[in-house]
Design brief:
The structure holds two protein chains of two kinds. Chain A is built from 17 helices and 16 strands. Chain A is of the alpha/beta class. In chain A, strands 3-2-1-4-16 form a five-stranded parallel sheet. In chain A, strands 6-14-7-8-9 form a five-stranded parallel sheet. In chain A, strands 10, 11, 12 and 13 form a four-stranded antiparallel sheet that branches. The termini of chain A are far apart. Chain B is α/β, with parallel strands linked by helices. In chain B, about 30% of the residues lie in helices and about 30% in strands. Chain B has a seven-stranded antiparallel sheet, with helices on both faces. The longest helix of chain B is centred in the last third of the chain and has 21 residues.
Chain lengths: ~475, ~280
């Protein structure tokens, strides 16, 4: 008999007033009893709408059926056929707009906690399984993967499963991309990311760090080195700024820099040399997941008042509901319908305040969201010593500017055929933020997966 | 890991290292930089490439011991390895098409100014090199600078080498004497580059400066190295490090370069204390 409880089994979390002072993970995860109880809420319906909601098409009811029977390793094997990064996805995927949004149980009550179950299964496997992933029989073909973030890791994993000899080139000193430098430890522990990456290495993938493709080697040179196809997953690039006065003041960060200092460079740990400003009052500009991450990180570094400054209302915020909810619980103050117009500083060039204007919502704009309109004469100043700008990125120019035949759109995103992820350059495929501009981990993974399939077809057809 | 094949102290505070990095050596061009990390807990710091040897696969860096990271780097010796060494980053200098150039180096900046002089000379330009140091004991690379230029002017702030004055004094004198420069390249501390640019603007001489901004990745991701050039936000790592000096907002760049000054001082102080304790206990 299925468990007909209308609500999801709650996931234990650290108390908000404790966790906003540490970098330990917020959600603690299900235990076996909770997982089985939640798995029993799945009706195992015939139509399986959840699977269609998953960008990497995990056979969700199948793995949940194993969990319900206590067959956790079997559940893991089902997921890992489709996803290279289950421990990551279980934590950071926006399930509420994907698999869970399609769940039949969601019509009356809450959907099955698919994300929580995925996380449980992946964590259980990491903790209990000693089996190394099996290496596929080599097929004699070499593929290069540029970047080592979610799109690249997925593409590399799928290709390795097919027997390809995959070499990944990572520009930073550690593989993982945004999973390492962007998403904070308290949402996605770096140890977990590294374990997932170790899994890829065990499958035979070679990862070369400190290699900036476009500079140290070009795409053409990679072809000359014998790679038959190349995947570009170089991710988001230059952070966007607002082009308002004061963005060059000391104490103004891009979210990329602020988060990289803390996450990748571990500025929050005393044994690391990375310097960072420890601000008292912080304004984070933006309403996405990155803005929430930056705000919650600033709080954990000891800031007293952390504001989210967003020019629209909460309804239009692109951040996941869960992130907004967690941020509020942790004491982040939301200044909605406020648009920054200037950042002010003292005689030493240090930030002292951010000047905003109040906004009201007008007619819907091109994005379908109601356009914020400034209220004349509503300027006010928020006293802060740090401003973090989290309003997105433009794609990195290093690769496409050094690769003839690789076309980009007006914004600099690499152009691809959306079914095959093939670029305008034969043999070169791309996915992730380099193609879409800033998006989610799972969308990047979905793109990486499609690209792996196309690369396989491309190389098989070439023979 | 990147082995150090040669190490040489240039003076009490400056060190030259030749590092085995064949991929970078193959691609490096004058004006580009590398980023290195000494150990697992270390910062990533940018250093301009002073020289490279494509055949032997080496890259030369010259650094001044100014903070903990450079002090740590200086503890490594020939045969030791640098954990991370990434490059070549940034755009190469554009030095073609000039007839007569003044290349100006300030202190540690001479280490990267002289390869620019060498490159300009190789492209057929007449090159005057003007080097400035605080005092005569700090003078480095005099022979290299002499070889790289047609004329070398070495200035000291205190006159201890018999040539008292700032680089701008020598530059103004040469210009007034009809040197006829169509390009000035200035590399050194920000206030020096600012002063040179103020001077060359008076005379309408094109001036290229090289930024050594605070940065993390060096590939156009973090945005930490941004500066204002001609009223627009630019990134030293991908748009530079060379910029038209007359367009750079130096005051902002100087303030930004001091972002972590207190933390850097504290970190260096702690590191030195730690060393002293180590020495006492040894």
């Amino acid at each position: 008999m299925p468990n007909m409880t209308l609500k999801k089994t709650p996931i234990p979390e650290q108390d908000p007033n404790v966790r906003n002072k540490n970098f330990e993970e917020v959600a603690l995860g299900y235990d076996e009893v909770m997982a089985i109880g939640e798995a029993e809420r799945c009706l195992n319906c015939k139509t399986r709408p959840c699977v269609a909601g998953c960008p990497v098409m995990i056979p969700i009811p199948d793995f949940i059926a194993h969990v319900a029977k206590g067959e956790f390793e079997e559940a893991y094997q089902v997921i890992s056929q489709a996803s290279s990064l289950p421990a990551v996805c279980g934590r950071v995927c926006p399930q509420e707009t994907q698999c869970e949004s399609k769940c039949v149980r969601g019509i009356k009550g809450e959907p099955v906690g698919i994300g929580r179950l995925e996380r449980f299964v992946a964590d259980w496997h990491m903790k209990h399984s000693t089996a190394k992933p099996t290496k596929a029989a080599p097929n004699g073909h070499k593929v290069a993967v540029i970047g080592a973030g979610p799109a690249s890791l997925t593409c590399a994993g799928d290709l390795a499963n097919l027997g390809y000899d995959v070499t990944m080139y990572e520009a930073l000193h550690t593989a993982g991309g945004v999973l390492m430098y962007g998403i904070p430890q308290f949402r996605l522990p770096k140890e977990i990311v590294q374990k997932e990456i170790q899994g890829l290495k065990d499958k035979g993938v070679t990862i070369l760090t400190d290699m900036v493709i476009g500079k140290v080697l070009t795409v053409d040179e990679l072809f000359d080195m014998g790679f038959e196809a190349i995947f570009i997953g170089s991710g988001a690039g230059l952070p966007n700024f607002m082009n308002i006065p004061g963005e060059g003041l000391v104490g103004t960060y891009s979210a990329n820099e602020f988060l990289t200092r803390v996450n990748l460079m571990k500025a929050y740990k005393p044994e690391y040399d990375t310097p960072i400003i420890h601000p008292k009052n912080v304004a984070v500009v933006g309403g996405g997941n990155v803005a929430m991450d930056a705000a919650r990180t600033a709080k954990r570094l000891g800031a007293e008042n952390v504001y989210i400054v967003y020019r629209r209302s909460e309804e239009e915020m692109p951040a996941r509901n869960e992130e907004i909810h967690h941020a509020k619980e942790e004491g982040i103050i939301f200044k909605l319908l406020n648009n920054p117009v200037a950042i002010h500083g003292d005689e030493n060039g240090k930030v002292t305040s951010i000047e905003c204007m109040e906004m009201e919502l007008g007619e819907p704009d091109a994005s379908g969201r109601r356009r914020p309109v400034e209220k004349a004469g509503s300027n006010f100043s928020l006293p802060v010593d740090c401003v973090i700008i989290a309003i997105g990125n433009s794609p990195n120019p290093l690769i496409h500017s050094n690769t003839p035949g690789l076309d980009t759109n007006r914004k600099g995103c690499i152009l691809v055929d959306e079914d095959s992820m093939a670029t305008t350059r034969p043999g070169v495929f791309a996915a992730g933020d380099a193609v879409s501009g800033a998006a989610t981990v799972i969308l990047a993974m979905g793109g990486g997966k499609k690209a792996a399939k196309s690369i396989h077809e491309y190389i098989q057809n070439k023979k | 890991m990147f082995p150090i094949v040669k190490k040489r102290a240039l003076n009490d505070s400056m060190t030259l290292m030749v590092v085995q990095a064949p991929f970078i050596a193959k691609k490096a061009q004058a004006g580009q930089f590398i980023i290195l990390r000494v150990n697992e807990f270390g910062e990533r710091i940018p250093l301009t490439i002073a020289d490279y040897d494509r055949e032997n696969g080496t890259v030369t860096i010259i650094f001044q011991k100014v903070g903990k990271t450079t002090m740590l780097l200086d503890t490594l010796n020939e045969g030791d390895e640098i954990l991370d060494f990434i490059g070549p980053l940034g755009k190469a200098s554009e030095l073609e098409g000039y007839k007569k150039a003044a290349v100006i180096g300030g202190g540690a900046g001479c280490a990267i100014a002289y390869p620019q002089a060498k490159a300009l000379k190789a492209l057929g330009a007449q090159v005057d090199m003007i080097a400035g140091f605080r005092n005569t004991d700090l003078i480095i690379l005099e022979d290299e600078m002499k070889d790289a230029s047609n004329q070398l002017f070495v200035m000291t702030d205190d006159g201890s080498n018999g040539n008292k004055g700032f680089v701008t004094d020598a530059l103004r004198k040469n210009i007034e004497n009809g040197a006829g420069y169509d390009l000035v390249v200035a590399i050194g501390p920000l206030p020096m580059m600012k002063a040179v640019c103020a001077l060359t603007k008076e005379y309408g001489i094109k001036t290229i400066i090289s930024m050594n901004s605070i940065m993390i990745d060096g590939t156009g991701m973090c945005g930490g190295c941004r500066l204002t050039v001609g009223g627009k936000t630019k990134f030293a790592c991908v748009d530079g490090p060379d910029f038209d000096g007359h367009e750079v907002d130096f005051d902002e760049a100087i303030r930004r370069s001091r972002t972590y000054m207190e933390q850097e001082r504290e970190s260096a102080r702690e590191y030195n204390c730690h060393l002293m304790e180590g020495a006492k206990n040894a």
